[in-house]
Structures are given as structure tokens and as C-alpha cells.
């Protein structure tokens, strides 16, 4: 069996390969590439002086997938089988891929673009780079280096790779250089104002991709406004005293760190109670406990704060200061002031009116609280006091009743004695009075408690008329 050896073929070119064998019976030929059957039973029978022989010719087209593979034929003749073959060397231009090494962000130093050789036979021996069709003469390797990446480097980058087979292979990448969101211009209308005026802050921004703009109030982290994918943004609001504070505008498109500007807004106002605060004007607490007076005041500029106290037994206010039993605190956040007065251990002397005076250069506000300290009583003492009170009440009632009865009797006896003895006269079984006197008139003496009565005698047998009188009442029968 005969076959050519070491076949070198450029991709897509054709070559005829012959396999021949001499045998009886004539052989059957089958062609393989590394075990994969590619042709069968292609036989030409020839005769010469030595006898009959068989020949099979294969027309092979170069394919890069067969590179370095073994091409062979198998000849079968009865129970005998022979094979012979050669290795293929398929040449072809390079297959390449151009790609950036990482996200192209402005400011990166030594940014690389690579020309990756996916496949080639023989290997690539020459590279050329082009930027928008302009040759970069100093770059001859498969890596193009940009030593400082700038937004102006946004271009097409082309790699030209050749290995001497066919035309050069070309591939390119469009490099879109990104740059962080930033503030080009920041402007505010007014940062100091009175309540009710309109406040406006404005920014012009840039970035690739377009940035998001967020307006927030510091400390509270309250987001006032967010606008996405914009080139400018503005914050507008009608100012209130509570709006006094520090603010931030942030421009961010996800690249590196956001660009931030800080600004402060001052809204001036006279002190007044926060509209969300509803404190009781009067509180009651048992002695020995703790009480706290608390209120929230809005004021700017920073106010002066004074607590006054007037007890129930005094008409004079006195200033309260912090000591071991009295704690005064002021927690301020710009224009918001949380003011508290705490008395740790109370007694009856703490009953009275507490007044909070807050004033600044704009005005003044007073808030008053009435505090009642109730002396604590035990249950047993209350029962004893109730029993004692009941007993005393009963004794007093008995004494008063006895006095009334006694006085009434004395007055009756005294009136009878003043009219002298009564002489009874008996006729049959009937008793009547003889020569019984009667009262004709009654007079009172000036500036005295005496009563004068003019008495006349009667000779009738009628019962005498008795008048009882004193200095504090008119006559009564």
C-alpha cells in the first residue's frame, strides 16, 4: 500500500491523495481522518505484468479542523487488512478577537486593549493597530497601551494581524470612555431669609452615563428630590423656620465617588411652639415621685431660655437652675429645640406654676405649666381619720342637742317665774286660775338685751297668756 506523506495544504485548497494495494481478491478501500470515516469503496482496478492491483484516489479539501490530524486509508482483502497514512498540516489566516481590558473610565493609567489570537497556523508574526483608520506606528504587539485614558480616547480601535497566509485578519472594538458624574455649576438664590420666602438651588452636571442628582437634608438624611439621567437639576421650596439646617446635593453615575456640594439654609423666625407638640397645661403627681415638663420650640437664631417658678404660697417668680434635684436640658437641632425641666424627687413645695420663657432677636414666647403635688396617704391612716371624724361628729351632735333642750327648759321656767305665783281656785273638779295677769305690750330697751312687758291683771278664769322672749328674737307664743 502506498500513500503520500506529510501533506501541507492551505485551508480550502484541494489535493488528490492516492492509496493503492495489490492483492487477490482485489482490496476494498476506506478513508479515515483520525478514526472518522470520510470516503468508502472508491476503487480503480489496474493490471500490469505483476498482476492485478487496486487503487483509490481521494480528493481532499483543506479544513483547519483537520490540522495535525492523521489521514489514512484501509484496504481490506479477504481476511487481510492494511492501512497507511500521513499527517495533515492545514494552514490558515489567524482568527482574532479585540477587547478592552476592563471598563474604560477616564483617569486610568496604562489602559490596555488586547488582540487575542483565537486560532492560527502558522502563528501570527505581525500586528498593526489603527485608531479611526489612522495607524499607530509605535504599537506592534498584540496589546495596545493607552498611558492615560481620557474621554477624548473614545474611538474605534482596530487590530490587523497576519501570519503570511491569505489576507490579514482585521477586528476592532469601539472604546467608549466613561467619566464620573460631576457638578459643572452650582448656584443658590439666597441662603438667609424669613419664613414664607422661596428658596432655589440649581446645578449643571455632566457624566457618562448621565448622572442622578439627589438633594438631601443632613442629619435626618431626608431625601428632598431625586432626578435620574439629567444634565441639570433644581430644588425649589417655600421656606419654614424648621428648614434651617445643612443640605447636600449629590451627583452620581456609579463611577468612583459621587460629586457633592454642601450648603446651609437659614430661615429666621420668632420663637413659637412646634405645631406637632401638644403638652398638657396642668399635671398632678404624688409627692416623692419625679415629673418632667417638656416642650418643643421652633426658633432661629438660637434663643435664650429661662425657667421660672412661682409656688402656690408666693406671688414672686424665681429663676430655676440645675442642681442635684433639678435637671434642665436643651437639645437643639438648628431651629428645633427640645426643652425639658425634670425634678427628681418632689414635695409639696414644688406645687405651683412653672413658666418657660424663650426669646431671640426676632421675638419671644412663654409657656406655662401648673403642677400639683399631692401628699400621699396610706390606706390605714385614711380609715382611722374617717373613724375619728365620725366619732367627733356624733359627740358634737349629742352636745348640741342637749344644749338646745336645756336652753329651752330654762327659758320656759324663767318666763313662768317672772309672772309670780299662780293661785289655783277649785270649783267642782275643774281647776282655773284666779286673778291671772295678762300681757298688754312689750318693749325693748335701747342698747340692752332686756325686754320690758306691761302686765295687767284679769279676773277671768282663762288660762294666762305667756310670752317668752330674748334679746335675739321677736316674741313667740
Please provide a written account of the structure.
It contains 1 helix and 34 strands. It has one helix at 379-418, and strands at 7-10, 14-21, 28-33, 36-40, 44-48, 51-61, 70-77, 80-100, 109-121, 126-131, 134-136, 143-148, 155-162, 169-175, 179-188, 192-194, 198-208, 212-217, 222-227, 232-238, 245-252, 259-273, 282-286, 291-300, 304-311, 318-319, 326-333, 336-343, 352-359, 364-374, 424-427, 430-433, 437-444, 451-457. Strand 29 and strand 30 form a beta hairpin. The longest helix is centred in the last third of the chain and has 40 residues, at 379-418. It is elongated and about 190 Å long.
What is this structure's SSE topology?
Layout: E1 7-10, E2 14-21, E3 28-33, E4 36-40, E5 44-48, E6 51-61, E7 70-77, E8 80-100, E9 109-121, E10 126-131, E11 134-136, E12 143-148, E13 155-162, E14 169-175, E15 179-188, E16 192-194, E17 198-208, E18 212-217, E19 222-227, E20 232-238, E21 245-252, E22 259-273, E23 282-286, E24 291-300, E25 304-311, E26 318-319, E27 326-333, E28 336-343, E29 352-359, E30 364-374, H1 379-418, E31 424-427, E32 430-433, E33 437-444, E34 451-457
Parallel strand pairs: 1-8, 16-22, 23-30
Antiparallel strand pairs: 2-6, 3-4, 3-7, 5-6, 7-8, 8-9, 9-12, 10-11, 10-13, 13-14, 15-17, 17-20, 18-19, 18-21, 21-22, 22-24, 24-28, 25-26, 25-29, 27-28, 29-30, 31-32, 33-34
Amino acid at each position: 500500500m502506498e500513500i503520500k506523506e506529510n501533506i501541507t495544504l492551505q485551508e480550502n485548497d484541494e489535493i488528490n491523495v492516492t492509496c493503492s494495494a495489490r492483492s487477490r481478491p482485489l482490496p476494498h478501500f476506506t478513508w479515515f481522518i483520525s478514526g472518522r470515516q470520510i470516503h468508502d469503496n472508491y476503487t480503480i482496478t489496474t493490471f500490469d505484468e505483476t498482476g492485478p492491483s487496486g487503487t483509490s484516489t481521494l480528493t481532499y479539501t483543506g479544513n483547519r479542523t483537520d490540522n495535525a490530524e492523521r489521514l489514512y486509508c484501509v484496504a481490506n482483502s479477504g481476511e487481510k487488512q492494511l492501512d497507511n497514512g500521513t499527517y495533515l498540516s492545514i494552514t490558515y489566516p489567524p482568527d482574532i478577537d479585540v477587547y478592552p481590558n476592563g471598563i474604560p473610565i477616564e483617569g486610568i493609567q496604562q489602559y490596555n486593549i488586547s488582540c487575542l489570537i483565537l486560532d492560527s497556523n502558522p502563528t501570527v508574526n505581525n500586528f498593526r493597530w489603527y485608531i479611526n483608520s489612522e495607524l499607530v506606528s509605535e504599537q506592534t504587539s498584540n496589546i495596545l497601551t493607552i498611558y492615560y485614558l481620557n474621554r477624548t480616547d473614545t474611538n474605534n480601535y482596530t487590530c490587523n494581524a497576519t501570519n503570511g497566509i491569505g489576507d490579514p485578519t482585521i477586528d476592532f472594538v469601539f472604546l467608549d470612555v466613561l467619566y464620573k458624574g460631576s457638578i459643572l455649576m452650582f448656584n443658590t438664590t439666597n441662603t438667609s431669609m424669613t419664613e414664607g420666602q422661596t428658596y432655589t438651588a440649581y446645578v449643571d452636571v455632566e457624566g457618562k452615563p448621565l448622572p442622578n442628582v439627589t438633594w438631601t437634608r443632613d442629619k435626618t438624611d431626608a431625601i428632598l428630590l431625586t432626578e435620574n439621567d439629567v444634565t441639570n437639576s433644581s430644588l425649589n421650596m417655600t421656606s419654614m423656620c424648621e428648614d434651617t439646617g445643612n443640605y447636600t446635593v449629590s451627583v452620581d453615575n456609579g463611577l468612583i465617588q459621587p460629586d457633592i456640594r454642601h450648603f446651609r439654609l437659614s430661615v429666621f423666625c420668632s420663637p413659637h411652639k412646634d405645631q406637632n407638640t401638644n403638652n398638657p397645661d396642668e399635671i398632678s403627681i404624688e409627692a416623692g415621685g419625679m415629673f418632667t415638663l417638656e416642650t418643643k420650640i421652633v426658633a432661629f437664631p438660637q434663643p435664650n431660655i429661662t425657667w421660672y417658678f412661682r409656688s402656690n404660697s408666693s406671688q414672686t417668680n424665681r429663676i430655676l437652675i440645675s442642681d442635684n434635684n433639678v435637671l434642665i436640658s436643651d437639645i437643639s437641632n438648628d431651629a428645633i429645640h427640645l426643652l425639658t425641666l425634670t425634678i427628681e424627687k418632689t414635695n409639696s413645695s414644688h406645687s405651683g406654676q412653672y413658666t418657660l420663657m424663650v426669646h431671640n432677636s426676632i421675638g419671644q414666647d412663654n409657656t406655662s405649666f401648673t403642677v400639683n403635688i399631692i401628699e400621699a396617704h396610706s390606706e390605714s391612716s385614711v380609715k382611722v381619720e374617717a373613724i375619728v371624724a365620725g366619732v367627733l361628729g356624733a359627740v358634737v351632735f349629742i352636745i348640741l342637742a342637749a344644749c338646745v333642750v336645756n336652753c329651752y327648759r330654762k327659758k320656759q321656767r324663767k318666763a313662768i317665774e317672772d309672772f309670780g305665783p299662780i293661785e289655783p281656785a277649785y270649783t267642782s273638779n275643774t281647776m282655773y286660775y284666779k286673778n291671772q295677769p295678762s300681757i298688754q305690750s312689750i318693749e325693748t330697751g335701747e342698747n340692752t338685751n332686756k325686754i320690758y312687758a306691761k302686765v295687767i291683771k284679769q279676773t277671768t278664769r282663762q288660762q294666762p297668756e305667756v310670752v317668752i322672749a330674748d334679746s335675739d328674737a321677736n316674741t313667740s307664743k
